[in-house]
Amino acid sequence: MGFLWRRTTKPLDGGIQAVSENRGAESRVSLSGRITIDSSPGLRALLLERLKSPGCQTLTVDFCEVTYIDTSGLAILVEVLRAARIQGKVFRLSGLRERPRYLLETTRLLHLFTEVNPEMPPVSNQ
Asked: What is the pTM of this model?
């Protein structure tokens, strides 16, 4: 018997929405919208909070529904990656689309991150 995913949805300032799911030692944050200087502070706080959670050993951020990311968003990803490494945890990216992938490639940051294919786990309404 596997663990069920626990899901919470949180709108962040700046027009981005985050759905957080937890199962065992894995946390996933699925983002939708645009990551800009307006939404970056809320996203930063959410990701660092998820990462600091004692039960979280792996944090995966799903970008399937992210249409845009600016350099402030890249800075957040690098900061969270650094925090994960310091804490001995895993930080992964999933579902990178055109604009986010392009920006990570052109800034030569993509190679720093572990990228996984998006998975659709069974959803629990708990």
From this structure: 0.83
